[in-house]
Amino acid sequence: MPREITAYSNPLVKRVRALREKRHRREEGLFLAEGLRIVAEAEEAGRLPRYIFHAREMRDHPLLRRIANACEAAGGEAVETTADILGKLSGKDNPQTVLGVYDEFETDLAALDRGASGIWLVAQALRDPGNLGTMLRTGDAVGAGGLILVDECVDPFSLEAVRASMGAVFTQAIARASWAEFIGWLRAGPGTLVALSLRTEIDYREPTYPAPTFLLVGNEARGLPAEYEDACDLRVKLPMRGKADSLNAAVATAVMAYTVLSLAV
Fold first, then answer.
1. Are 176 and 197 in contact (CB under 8 A)?
2. End-to-end CA distance of the chain
């Protein structure tokens, strides 16, 4: 049976609310995922919450009940609470009726199986959590092996990134590395590194893309450093027919990911 919490002053409420801040997520090794759909996606991927909070009106929902029972059977805790407290936890005026607290997870570069997929996404110095979450969602859609975050990127476990991923944070491998670590790992095995760049005349539809292709996208405002582009096997660009000089990073990644699929060899 779930525990009932209705007081803002409850220590668990304060602890979980603090997970909206990166510092506390790192200290606790925990992060938040909001909404029954995302919690269900996590369960399907084999990940159960440490805590699952839900509104009273959800107590008899069969899917929630199943996940809550599995959470408790695995040593976690189900908590029934109010919409106001759910709003405090998520920071939203109109919160979802379910919120899960999960253990953070990462995959070291050395543990990645580069042969698991013909395409991998690589983001350098990405700053926007919506872009990161959307890239995870794109990776899931195209069957990518995962997302490798190079240099200092936005936290993939921020509530905003998790929301934007629509559950893909649980289905995609996530690794973090410096540029030197990444390029050293990449060159130790098979893999073609392809950069989206303005410093090329090669149209993105011209080449073929041998598996595994690692698709590298740079910072939203600055793009990729020149030395990073120079280290790539191939640089391609998306044609801009209007006044814009580039697409949003996540949109460009999606266009390129489906192109790599269609032109893979």
1. no
2. 54
Confidence of residue 1 (pLDDT cuts 50, 70, 90): low
- Bridge partner list, 54: 80, 98
Pairwise CA distance, residues 8 & 215, whole Å: 45
Domains of the chain are 3-103 (3.30.1330.30), 109-262 (3.40.1280.10)
CA distance 189 to 4: 52
Token match 């993939």: residue? 156
Please report, as a single letter, which amino acid is at residue 39. Answer: V
Q: Please, which residues have CB within 8 angstroms of residue 262's CB and are 6 or more apart in sequence?
A: none
Find the helix or strand (DSSP H, E) in which 69 lies: helix 62-73
Q: Are 197 and 224 in contact (CB under 8 A)?
A: yes
Q: d(Cα 94, Cα 253) in Å, to the nearest integer?
A: 31
For the entire predicted model, the pTM comes to: 0.92
Residue with tokens 């998790």: 162
In the structure encoding, which two tokens stand for residue 68, read together? 């809550």
Q: Indicate the burial class of 56 (C-beta count within 10 angstroms; 0-12, 13-18, 19 or more).
A: middle
The string of pLDDT tens digits covering residues 218-238 is 998 889 999 999 999 999 999
Q: What is the pLDDT of residues 35-74, one digit of tens each?
A: 999 999 999 999 999 999 999 999 899 999 999 999 999 9
Mean pLDDT of the chain: 94
Q: Edge-to-edge strands of the sheet including 173-177?
A: 173-177, 146-150, 119-124, 213-217, 192-196, 234-236
Residue type at 142? V
Residue type, 31: F
What pLDDT, on the 0 to 100 scale, is given for residue 265?
67
The whole-angstrom separation of Cα 152 and Cα 164 is: 20
Q: Among all chains, which residue has been given the structure tokens 């790539």?
A: 232
